[in-house]
Amino acid sequence: MATKENKGTRAFNETIKAYLEERAENDALFAVRFANPSKSVEDCVQFIINQVWKSGCNGFEDAEIYGMAVHYWEENEIEVGNPINCKVVVNHTVELTEEEKEQARQDAINKLRDEEMAKMRRPSQPKKASEKETANVQPSLFDL
Fold first, then answer.
1. CB-CB neighbours of 14 under 10 Å
2. Is the Cβ–Cβ distance between 47 and 80 less than 8 Å?
3. 130 in helix, strand or coil?
4. What is the pLDDT along the chain (144 residues), one digit of tens a residue?
5. What pLDDT was estimated at residue 1?
6. Please, which of 3, 54, 97, 131 could form a disulfide with 127 given CB 3.0 to 4.6 Å?
7. In sequence order, what are the residues at sequence separation of 6 or more whose Cβ sits closer than 8 angstroms to the Cβ of residue 17?
8. Taking the model in full, what pTM does it have?
9. Cβ–Cβ contacts within 10 Å for residue 41, how many?
10. Helical segments of the chain, H only
11. Where are the domains of the chain?
């Protein structure tokens, strides 16, 4: 794909690839189609994203998406479509590497620090007369 992928799209690519590889291992006829050098998983994913976009639906069963992937590989002449910049959500947990976890932790720390610094830089608002501290006022003997 020509666009920069987000983690969800990478996970989607990997999920589709794993499904197709497993299918090719278990289905000799599909294995022949899957070995076609003029096709790629990236184009397959682009085809699926374009089909989903055209449908106008936001959610699909796994079987529907896998069916689109198989259809892409089974058709000799198929229009992949143009790259679409979108976010793909997969229905399984994306495992982060230790480096990605550490980066996320550092990003969170930096964001918190920046938010706290911004609070400290804001000018304090003058208190209203009704909010002024009155709790520390002690009556004197002369007020009685």
1. 13
2. yes
3. helix
4. 344 455 557 888 989 999 999 999 999 999 999 999 999 999 999 999 999 999 988 788 889 999 999 999 999 889 998 888 888 877 766 677 888 889 888 999 999 999 999 888 887 766 665 555 555 555 555 554
5. 39
6. 131
7. 41
8. 0.59
9. 18
10. 7-26, 28-34, 41-55, 62-74, 98-121
11. 7-74
| Residues belonging to the chain | 144
What six digits make up the tokens of 23?
């299918």
Amino acid present at 103: Q
d(CA 7, CA 9): 5
**CA triple 92-93-95, angle to 5 deg:** 140
Token pair for 42: 């990236």
Give the number of other CB atoms < 10 A from CB of residue 5: 15
